[in-house]
Amino acid sequence: MIWTKNRLKICIFVSVFLSFSLSCISVPLNETEEYPNNMDEGISISSPLSSGVGLDSPMLPDFVDVVDRVRGSVVSVVAETETLSVFGERFPNFRSGSGVIFDQRGHILTNNHVIKDAVEIIVTLDDGKQLNGELVGTDPLTDLAVVKVDNSGLPFLNFAIQGEVRVGEWVIAIGNALALPGGPSVTVGIVSALGRSLRVDQTTTLYDLIQTDTIINPGNSGGPLLNLKGEIVGINTAVLRGGQVEGIGFAVGGYTATLVSKEIIDKGRVRWAWLGVTISELDAQEAAKLGLPARQGVLIQDVFSESPAAEGGLQSGDIILSIEGHYVQTIADLTNVLRFEVEVGDRVIVEVLRGGNDKLSNLITLDERPSS
Fold it and tell me: What pLDDT digit, counting tens, does each position of 181-218 carry?
């Protein structure tokens, strides 16, 4: 059911001033210290160089034209959730974020934490039109979700080609920052680093993140990070706050977003390959003891019973060196191999070091990672 304009105005007013949750994962650097809630709103551009412009050119990119071309594909996403009082009464709460239309069928990418537990999703287009959003599926491990609106012919954006994103290139973040009226907000910056990982809570670490100094405010979550061609290079998801940190935002990489969105649309969920082990980084002391270079291999702490690893002969204390020819030096390497290089049901060769001397090759059939 589409909300009436008056009902929406009341909800927005109440949400903004009383109980509106602006969605953006905020990761404090030290939970024992108190940090300010706001980040510097300015952008300091110390270099006049633009992407693809010669070193002697003073010209900046034409952000205006890019924004004009893409803003019709960026939407506001409002999720209504419910809480129960001690008397069993239901009270509505509203969480605001952003999203981007990425195909002609009306599929929208946003963050899982934006629409989590939603009983109703309202999508507002750039022209102010409101549509009911249908949740297609989510993937908490990557903090991504796909929502669909029943409206064909909407403008959509394409993903950038994998490998074309480079450190130092200009990027643009567009989203529903702070749930302010009047359309999306725009900030610009550069790609600061690629392939970052970030622990956002006790059970979830996000991988394949793009680090950027583009300002990502609450409400930007789920909105696109774009290159100067107007292509999606990432989905804005988290920001580091506090201390001496200034302007460190993170977006889920476009390659991850492409794979996850396709899986969700095709199957309703994402099936991640699973070994069935608990692991830790191989620290310098342990590596020296085994005669290995530091950060070469991942140490198996425990093996789950009846898991692929157990059935394939892996043991606690083994050091994983490679999977199906892909070298594993860190936990991030192992995670990326299981997510992007192999699939559920694949029979793979896992090379391990056992007892500091013996290199073994184990044939393992990968299973699907349990949902919990």
Answer: 667 889 999 999 998 888 888 777 888 899 999 988 88
Q: Are the beta carbons of 218 and 23 closer than 8 angstroms?
A: yes
Total domains in the fold of the chain? 2
Q: Is the pTM of this model over 0.90?
A: no
Is 359 a member of any domain?
yes
- Letter string b/e over residues 96-127, b meaning 16 or more CB atoms within 10 A of that residue's CB: bbbbbbbbeebbbbbbbbbbeebebbbbbbbe
Closest alpha carbon to 255 in 214, 204, 200, 195? 195
281 and 362 inside one domain: yes
Nearest Cα to Cα of residue 224 among 258, 180, 247: 258
Residues 214 and 253 both lie in one domain:
yes
Its domain, for residue 321, covers 273-368
Q: What is the pLDDT of residues 50-106, one digit of tens each?
A: 444 444 555 788 899 999 999 999 999 999 998 887 887 888 899 899 999 999 999
Whether residue 4 lies inside any domain: the answer is no
Which residues are tagged catalytic? 113, 143, 221
| Domain CATH for 214 | 2.40.10.10
Q: Does residue 296 share a domain with residue 364?
A: yes
Kind plus residue range of the DSSP H or E element containing 301: strand 298-303
Residues 6+ apart with CB under 8 A from 139: 112, 145, 260, 263, 264, 269, 270
Structure tokens at 208: 């394949």
Cβ atoms of 165 and 210 closer than 8 Å: yes
Q: Give the pairing type, strands 319-323 and 224-226.
A: unpaired
Please spell the DSSP secondary structure of 192-213, one letter per residue. Answer: EEEEEEEE-SSS-EEEEEEEE-
Backbone angles phi, psi at 317, to 5 degrees: 95, -15
